Amino acid sequence: MDVLQMTRRRHGELVVVSLAGEVDADNVSKVRECLDEAVETHGPRLVVDLSRLTFIDTTGLGVLVRQLASLRDRDGTMALVAPDGQVLRRLRRTNLAPLFPIYDTLSQALA
Asked: What is the 3 state secondary structure string of the chain?
């Protein structure tokens, strides 16, 4: 799956944005808009489910880091769901993993 799919849903005080497919320079602006709209609509507590993402490049990682910084400025939170795979390896290789709470499953992130 290389076409990006995005969904948003509310779970209590949290908003969950799920991404599936690939995030790269061609579609990263759509991801940024989706995350911004989710926070504007539902508040500053965000979970981004990357479990169905097959690829993320540095522009996508940059969007996640900027969103985290923006949320922290608003006393918000952001957690990632990234089970073992390419996305988690990329987060670790770029030394970004320590910035985020990272969970193996969505249910763990929502607990």
From this structure: CCCCEEEEEEECCEEEEEEEEEECCCCHHHHHHHHHHHHHHHCCEEEEEEEEEEEECHHHHHHHHHHHHHHHHCCCEEEEECCCCHHHHHHHHCCCHHHCCEECCHHHHHC
